[in-house]
Description:
The protein has 4 helices and 5 strands, in the order ββααβαββα. α1 crosses α3. A 3-stranded parallel beta sheet has the order 3-4-5. About 40% of the residues lie in helices and about 20% in strands. By secondary structure, it is of the alpha/beta class.
Amino acid sequence: PVSIVHGTKTLELRPSAVDKATAVRCILKDLSEQSELPDSSPSSPEIVKEAISSEFGFILAIGDGKTDEAVFQFLDSMSTALTVTVGKKQTHAKSYLDNVEEVHALLSQMCLL
């Protein structure tokens, strides 16, 4: 099965079993020590989240579209994650920035820390 996601300026076609949250989970798992994380089967997402959250001190996810919501939801329960949407709207992100210029300003300030 294929999912079709209509964005503002995008049309995304992808396998139904794969979304941005799946990609983020795989990337974080690969960055972690493989021996400490359980198999990422759908039956153990909370265990995977707990292991990933304890491995990384800070995770920043910024997005502006519908497909980013899956990432925001995945990271929502992780205390080490800051999720940010661009533009004020209903979202699973914990915070928002008004526009891309504010994203640039945030990232610039973080580089100075």
